[in-house]
Design a protein that fits this description.
Elements lengths: L12 H15 L8 H14 L5 H10 L3 H12 L10 H18 L4 E7 L5 H13 L7 E8 L2 H9 L1 E3 L14 E3 L3 E4 L1 H4 L2 E5 L5 H4 L5 E6 L8 H14 E9 L12 E5 L4 E5 L1
Parallel strand pairs: 1-2, 1-7, 2-6, 7-8
Antiparallel strand pairs: 3-5, 4-5, 8-10, 9-10
Helix pairs in contact: 3-4
The structure holds S-adenosylmethionine.
The site of S-adenosylmethionine has 24 residues, from loops.
Enzyme class: transferase
Organism: Desulfurispira natronophila
Catalytic activity: L-glutamyl-[protein] + S-adenosyl-L-methionine = [protein]-L-glutamate 5-O-methyl ester + S-adenosyl-L-homocysteine
Length: about 280
């Protein structure tokens, strides 16, 4: 009788706590008690690739091996949830074009608009921003836009850099915007003129050494990521974003997220189709 290798390597409660704390300290992502199966399922295959038979061995590898920094990047590729799509939460995007940008242009002292899509996952958000700025003609002649996209997952960032997307990414896209893509019915590539102002890079929102690379931003999008953090991580991340944003700059967070009890550095404005924060 052949002995089958089990698909999933067992994660003990003690090991789960070690991984949960490690992930939390590194990324701010907080796995609750009932999420043990996620770590068990997603990391088992990685353990096998590295020839580990127990989670504890993998934990020590992540902590002490000379390749630990590269492996932490891999760990985050496996544990982050990268769900996103083009033109997500369109009310906020409309507000950016119709209200935020015109308002910013009134007081701008230089001719560069800087927008940061923080936690941009595979890039649909920064490319949507680029398309809308182009389509609307909101920027007067002589002005240009720089759109930065960052994410903790290197795999997601690399996918964004490839700028190739499947149909599922367009589930909320008005057909009139498809002219900004070249497609064969299955794969769609973002046109070069939309890609040009977009710069994608890996970055951890919890680390001021990473977020400090983005200064004097006029607008920041940080949507659908605060939900993965506890209150302490939210405070750290929002503090970091606040330092990157110009006074009177705009911050958009996800519709199920709030800065209530997190920061008093922002004014909240409910504009009907959504919420926007401005830096005081
Ligand atoms: C659900 S996606 C949201 C994507 C996009 N903002 C949107 O609203 O469609 C959440 C992203 O947050 C990223 N993330 C999680 N923790 C992070 C951190 N500490 N720093 C940067 N990105 C992080 C994940 O890798 C993931 O791609």
């Amino acid at each position: 009788m052949s002995v089958m290798t089990p698909q999933v390597i067992k994660l003990t409660d003690e090991e789960y706590k070690l991984f949960r704390d490690m992930v939390y300290e590194y990324s701010g992502i907080f796995f609750q008690e009932h999420k043990k199966y996620i770590i068990e399922n997603r990391l088992s295959r990685r353990l096998k690739q590295l020839n580990f038979t127990a989670f504890k061995d993998y934990y020590y590898y992540l902590k002490y091996d000379r390749k630990k920094d590269e492996e932490l990047v891999e760990l985050m590729n496996l544990l982050t949830i990268n769900e996103t799509y083009f033109f997500r939460e369109p009310g906020q995007l409309k507000h950016m074009i119709n209200t935020a940008i015109p308002q910013l242009l009134k007081t701008k002292t230089d001719r560069v608009l800087r927008i940061w899509s923080a936690a941009c996952s595979t890039g649909e958000e920064p490319y949507s921003i680029s398309i809308l700025i182009k389509e609307s003609g909101v920027l007067p002649a002589g002005y240009r836009v720089e759109i930065f996209g960052t994410d903790l997952s290197m795999d997601a960032v690399n996918k964004g850099k490839s700028a190739r997307y499947r149909k599922i990414s367009f589930r909320s896209t008005d057909p009139r915007y498809m002219k900004y893509f070249k497609g064969d019915g299955t794969d769609f590539t973002v046109n070069a003129d939309v890609r040009m102002p977009v710069k994608l890079d890996r970055g951890n929102l919890l680390l001021s050494s990473d977020t400090g690379r983005y200064r004097n931003m006029d607008i920041i999008f940080c949507r659908n990521v605060l939900i993965y953090f506890d209150k302490e991580s939210k405070k750290r991340v929002i503090g970091n974003l606040s330092r990157s944003l110009q006074p009177q700059g705009f911050l958009y967070i996800g519709h199920s997220e709030t800065l209530f009890g997190i920061s008093d550095e922002f004014r909240m404005n409910n504009f009907g189709e959504g919420i926007v924060y401005t830096k005081k």
